[in-house]
Amino acid sequence: MSNKTFLAQFSLEKTSRILWGLVLLSLPITSFRFFPFLGKHTYVRPLAFYPLVLLYLVLFLRLFKKEIKLPWSNVLLPFFLFLIFTLFATANGALLAPLPLRGQEYWGRAIRAFITFGIGLSFFFAALWMHKEEEDLRRSLKWLYAGLAFTILWVGVQAIALHTPLLKKGQVSAWQELFSVRGLTKVRRVSGFAFEASWLAGQLVTLYIPWLFASIFSRFNIIKNKWLEPLLFIGAVASLLLTFSRGGLLIGLFAMGLTLLISGRKAISRALSWFFRIKKSAKPVYIKAFATRTLLFLLIIIMLWGGVSFIGQQKYVTRLWTVEANSISDYFVQINAGGRLTYFWAAGKAYAEHPVIGTGLGSAGFYLFQNYPDWALYNNPEVARQLNPTSNLYPNAKNLYLRLLAETGIIGFIIFGSFLLAVLAEIAKEFQRNKFIGSAGLFSFIAILGYYFMQDSFAMAELWINFGIILGISHHASQEQL
To answer: Backbone phi, then psi, for 397, in 5-degree steps?
Structure first.
């Protein structure tokens, strides 16, 4: 091989790694202001899509030069089946001929839905393509952690503006609007670089915390300094608390607890043994070990007490158990979840009307208004804004499971479920090969399943990245064993 050929290949390979790194670094910015061809009510606008497009150009050039092969995993079989069925369900949905809604027509919504689906898939396949071995993961985590570090710093700036007089909220909001379609919200919830607080919470529990949590109890470090992962983990948890996202907090706690129960029992036993059993040694060494454990214990107590106390002072959270309601629907309205329950109800009714193959991808909104329950038509501000004749808002299910049921019917829902089960099977295989990757994968899987109850968009990159990383490494590990 000539020096020119070697340098060209090395340059393309290095360029692809840098571009992938920029994708991971820019993931926190979910609603980039400068995103063409999207309406003003489209809020999923990932900045990471720009370096991702450049990355695909480099990858396809390398593919054309036969330096690399197309990515593959057996998990893709049920996924492609789901995609084919979705095309069929969407074509069939056109025969239902739903009436246009607020300037939106069926095929316009369908094309838009497939575009957002394609955006999510582009992140998934890029992650699958860029990961073959543990070293690829180490490089990715460095970029991913850098993006998280910037997010934590920006969350700190927002928290200062929202909870202290040191910074003006309007000024920080103006800074955010330089790159985002939205500044700070009226409530005192941080949103980081994301569109809203719940989106930031989703990023933290589905994308970042899984790797940090797994690295701590599996003792996997990407650099020699072992303080990096614990420090970022504390910052991520603090940021999650500052979002006041009730769903994010519950999902994070549940995913953490279940992951510990399944894969962290030995780590818990080892930690308890280290904590309570101090080896007999010289007095100065014994005193140092005892002081270290005491300081760590006090730090954990202070963090837990501080976190619980802080959340306990937020009415947005405490409203969950302090409101007095006359019915279940009244309870959801009073805890500011009346709109979400309304969308769930309407999506369920839309599914019941078309249970087999659904109404077509992107079309659920055409069938929601007519299925709103009577109780949702009063004392429900969010629904009132949507029903306002002057509003241009297009309703959505805000729950991926109900959206799939309504738009692709029970058949599409089952096929997509088989894809998720296939992903879980690959994660289970990784437990046998690499506990760190398997544990992070399990945490991500549980968190993503929970997050699907809160979001219905396919374009959220954090719902695809970790799956792609794990499946890429798992596939190549399986190939090497053959």
So the answer is: -75, -30
| Alpha helices for 219-327 (secondary structure H) | 228-243, 246-263, 265-276, 283-312, 315-322
- Centre a 10 Å sphere on the Cβ of residue 472 and count the other Cβ atoms it contains: 25
Average pLDDT over the chain, rounded to whole?
A: 86
DSSP state of 395: P
Residue in the structure block whose two tokens are 């979840």? 337
The arithmetic mean of pLDDT across residues 129-153, rounded, is 94
3-state secondary structure 23-88: HHHHCCCCEECCCCCCCCCCCCECCCHHHHHHHHHHHHHHHHCCCCCCCCCCCHHHHHHHHHHHHH
Quote the pTM value: 0.89
- pLDDT for residue 392 is more than 90: no
**CA pair distance 246, 241, nearest whole angstrom:** 9
Q: What b/e string do you get for 109-119 counting C-beta neighbours within 10 Å, with b at 16 or more?
A: bbebbbebbeb
Residues of the chain by 3-state class (helix, strand, coil), percent to 5: 70, 0, 30
pLDDT in tens, 330-351: 888 888 888 889 999 999 999 9
Burial class (CB in 10 A: 0-12, 13-18, 19+), 434: buried
Q: CB-based contacts of 474: which residues, under 8 Å, 6+ apart? A: 73, 426, 427, 429, 430, 433
pLDDT (tens digit per residue) in 282-309: 556 556 666 766 776 777 777 677 767 7
Backbone dihedral angles phi then psi of residue 367, each to the nearest 5 degrees: -115, 5
Task: Report the C-alpha gap between 124 and 458 in whole angstroms.
Answer: 11
Domain limits of the chain?
12-277+314-321+400-481
The mean pLDDT value for 415-420 works out to: 95
The conformation of residue 356, written as its DSSP 8-state character, comes to T
Closest by CA position to 212, among listed 440, 446, 470, 24: 440
